[in-house]
Amino acid sequence: MKFKLSIGIVFGLIALATLIFSAALIAVIDYRVTSKLDGVLWTVPAKLYSRPLELAESIEVNKDNLIKELEMLSYQKVKRPEKSGQFSFSRDKLIIFLRGYKNQRSGIFDITFEESKVKSIKNQLGISEDLIKLEPIVIGGMYPAHMEDRVLLDWPEVPQTLIETILAVEDQNFFNHYGVSLRSISRAFLKNIQAGEVEQGGSTITQQLAKSLFFTSAQTIRRKVMEAVASLLIEFHYSKEEILLAYINDVFLAQSGKRAIHGFGMGAQHFFGTSIKNLEIDQIALLVGMLKGPSLYNPRRNPGNATQRRNLVLTVLNRNFKISDSELAQLKTKELGVARPNYRTETKYPAFHDLVRIELQENFNEKDLRTKGLSIETNVDPILQDALEKSIIKTKAQLIKKYGKKLSDIEGAAIAVDVSNGEVKAVVGSTAPSAYGFNRSINAIRPIGSLVKPFIYLTALDQYKKYNLTTMLDDSKLSIRSGGEIWEPDNFDKKFHGKIPLHVALWQSYNIASARLGLDVGFEAVEDMFSKLGIDKQFQNYPSLFIGSFELSPYQAIQAYQTIAADGFYTPLRSIREIKDTKGEIEFSYPYSIEQRIRPEPVALLKFAMQQTFERGTARGYSSEDIRSWNAGGKTGTSDDQRDSWFVGFAGEILVLVWLGFDDNRTTPLTGRTGAFQVWKNFIDETKPISKVKTSLPRINYLWTDMNDGLLSGKKCKDSLLVPFIEGTEPNLIPSVRRTCSNRIENSDEGLLDKLKQAFEGGQG
Amino acid sequence: MNLLKLNIVIVISIFLYSCVANQNTRDASLYAVPVNDFSRTVELLIANEEFLEAEIMKINALNPSIQRIILGADDFLKKENYTKANSELERAFRLTKSEGALYLRIAHLRYKQGLLKESESFASRGLLLGNISSWERLLLNVYLKN
Known about the structure:
The complex is a heterodimer of chains A (about 775) and B (about 150). Chain A folds into five domains: about 1-40; about 45-140, Penicillin-binding protein 1b fold (2-Layer Sandwich); about 145-330, Orthogonal Bundle (Penicillin binding protein transpeptidase fold), CATH 1.10.3810; about 390-685, Beta-lactamase (3-Layer(aba) Sandwich); about 700-765, no CATH class. Helices cover about 40% and strands about 20% of the residues of chain A. Chain A has 25 helices and 30 strands. In chain A, strand 5 (about 95-100) and strand 6 form a beta hairpin. In chain A, helix 1 (about 1-40) crosses helix 6 (about 220-235) and helix 7 (about 240-250) packs parallel to helix 8. Chain A is elongated, with a radius of gyration of 34 Å. Chain B has helices spanning about 1-25, 35-45, 50-60, 65-80, 80-95, 100-110, 115-125, 135-140. Classes of the chains: A alpha+beta (about 775), B mainly alpha (about 150). Chains A and B meet through strand 25 of A and helix 4, helix 5 and helix 7 of B.
C-alpha cells in the first residue's frame, strides 16, 4: 500500500515536472515568437544612397558620364528598349526605360542632346517632361550584427500577384488552417507525386515562418515539435494578414557576401534593381520559386535551374487560373531579366562612409541607425567617386614606373566637392581606396606647404587699398630671428628673384616674397583670414607658417579652399543631404548654408593669380580655352624635404584637393606638380568639368601690365599680361619705354581688348 | 489694387533714379557707394512682407525645368513647410547655379526661417550673377537690409 502510494507520488511528480517543463518551453517559444515578430523582424538597417541623377531640359550634362552611370545602375544597352532597365544610345539621343524611383514613374523616355546640353525630354506619348530622375545607387548600410538586410513592405505595398503566387505555390490552404495543416501535407505529397518533382512544400506558411525563428536547420523531431508549437502560437497571437506580411518580409532569398537578403522587397532590389511594385508576373514567379532553394535557384549562379523553377511556378499559376495558356507560353519564353549585380554590391566607398558616420554621430544614435530603416541620401557622385579612385590608383602606378619601387607604399588622399554648395562628391583615404583602414582624408594631419600661400595673399588683397596684384614684393635674402634662432627661408630653386609683382610671386610660389608678405600683413590679420576661410585650428605665430609649416588634414584644407573657390562664401562641407524615415518623410536634413566671409573682389584677384598657375605656373599643360571656360585655378604645394605633395584646384563647379606622401613621413622624390597634380589631372581628364557659370563683378577693371615691374603696359608689349584691379586701385604709370607699344593696342585693338576683358570677366566670380 | 500699382510705379521710378545716381558716383572706395535713394525703395518693399513675397514668387526661372521645381518649392513655402521648400530649392541648385529666381527664393526662405545672416549671404551671392534683371537685383538687395 505504502509502495503504491510512493509510485503514485513519483508519477505525480513526474507529471507535474513535465507539465512545468512544457509550460516553460511553451513560454520560451512564445517569447521567441513574439519578440521576433514584434521586434527584430521589423528592424531595418539604415541604407546609404548616392545622389540620384536628375536630367532637365537645357541643363549641361556629360554624356559619357551619363552612360557610365547607367551601366553602374545595371541598365542594359539594347537596340530598342522594351522593358524596364534597358536603354539605347546614339550620339544625340538616349532612349531609356526607367525603372522608376519614388515620385519618378517607370516608363520609356526619349532624351535628345544638343552638344553638351539636354535639348528635350519626352515621354512615350511625345509630351515634354522637363525633368527625369534616375534611381540612386545603394552604397552601403548600417547593418546590425546579424547582417540581415531587408526593405520592409507594408500591406498596401504588396502586389496582389505576389500574394496569389505565394499562396498558390507555398500554402493554398493558408486562410483555413491554424498553423499546421495535415491536409496541406497530404495534398502536397499527392501533387508532388503527380508532378514527379517537388512543386509544393508540406509546411504551411506559418510553419515556414516559425522555422526561421530557430537557429538550427537540423531536421529533428524535437525541432519539428517546437516549430509546430511555435506555429500554433503565431496563429494565436497574429492575424492571417500579419503572418503573411511577416513571411513576405522575412523569407531568406540570397546571400550577398556577408549580407543576407531577406524579404521580397529587398529581393526585388537585389535581383531586379527596382521596387516590388514594378515587377512583372514572371519576375515575381522567379522570386517565389527561389524560396524552395535560394542557392540552388539563384538566377545569377544557376540560371538554368532558376528558369526551370520559374516556369514551374508559372505553370502552377496557370493551373490556378491566374494566367491563361497563351500567357503561360509567352512568359515561359522570356529571359530571366535579372539585373547585373549592382556595381560592387557590398558597402563601397569606405572613406566616404567615414565622413557620413561622423556627420551622423551628431544627430543619431547607433541603435536607430541599425534598426529604424532610415534612408540616408548622401551627396556622393558615383561617377566622380569612381574617377577619383581610379585616378589615385593610376597615378601611383605611373609614379612607381617613373621613380621605381621606393614609391610602392606611397599613400594618398583626395576629396572632390561642389564649389558652391559644399556637397562632398567623392573621397578617397588611401591609394587602395576600396580597402577599409586609416582614412588619410580626415586623419592625416600634414604640413600643407605652399597651399598656405593663397591664404596669405588673400589677407593682403583684402587690404585692397594697400595691395593689388601688381604690388611689388621683395624676393631677396631674408634673415629674421625667430624662437631664438635665425630663420632664413629658401626658394625651391635656391635663387633670389629680386622685386616681382605680387601675382607672379604667388603663381611662381616664391617662398621669400611670400614670407615677407606674411610678415608685412601680420600674424593677426593672417589668423583672422584663416578663421574666415573656415580653418578651425590653433594658430601659432612663427614665420615658417607663411611658407607652409602649418599642418592640416586634406579635409580641413579643402574647406578653406571651398571658401576661396566660392568667391568668399563659406559653406560647411556636407556628405549627407537628407535622412528619411520608412514613409519617405524627411527626418533630418543638412541644408545648404552659406556665410559671406570675404568680399568677392579680393577673392576674384586671388583666383586670377591662381588661374595663372594653370596658364604659366606649376600646373601648366591645359589650353587657355579650357582654363577660362572652367574658370580653373589651383595651387601646388610641397612641404620641407618633399615629404608631402599637395595640389588643390577648381575647374567648373568642382574643387579637388589631393595629398600624396608616406605614412612614416619620410622624404619623397615628388613635388606638388609631379605627384598630387598628376592625380588631379587624371581625374579632370576623365570627368571633364562642365563650364563655370559666368558671374559679374562690375567694380573689377582689367589693364595690361608688365610681368616684371607691375606697371602699365600694352598687349603688344613684351611680357605683358591683362590683370584685374579693383576699381580705384589701378596702377597709372606707363614707363616711357612702353608708351609706343601700349598706345598701339589702345588705338587699334580696342575691340579685342573688350573681348579679352569679357573673357576674363566671364571667368571671374 | 490702385495702391499696389502706385507702389510699383514708385518703386520702379526710384530704382531708375537710383541707377542714374549710382553712375554719377563712381568712387575709388568699394564700399562707399551712396545707398540712400536706393534704400528708400528697399524700405518700401520691406514694409509689406506679403507684397514682397508675392513679388518674389512672380520671378520666374529662365529654364522651364527649373521653373517647375520652383513652383513646387513655392507651394511648400506658402504652406510654411520650410524643410520641403528648401529640399526643392536645393534640388534646383544642383541643376543650375545661374538662376536669380533661385537665389531670391532661398534668401526669402532663410528670412522666413529667421536665418537673417544666411538670407543676406544668399542675396549677396545672387547679386554676383551676370544674368539677373534690374528688378531681381533690387529684390535681392532687400535681403541685404535684414
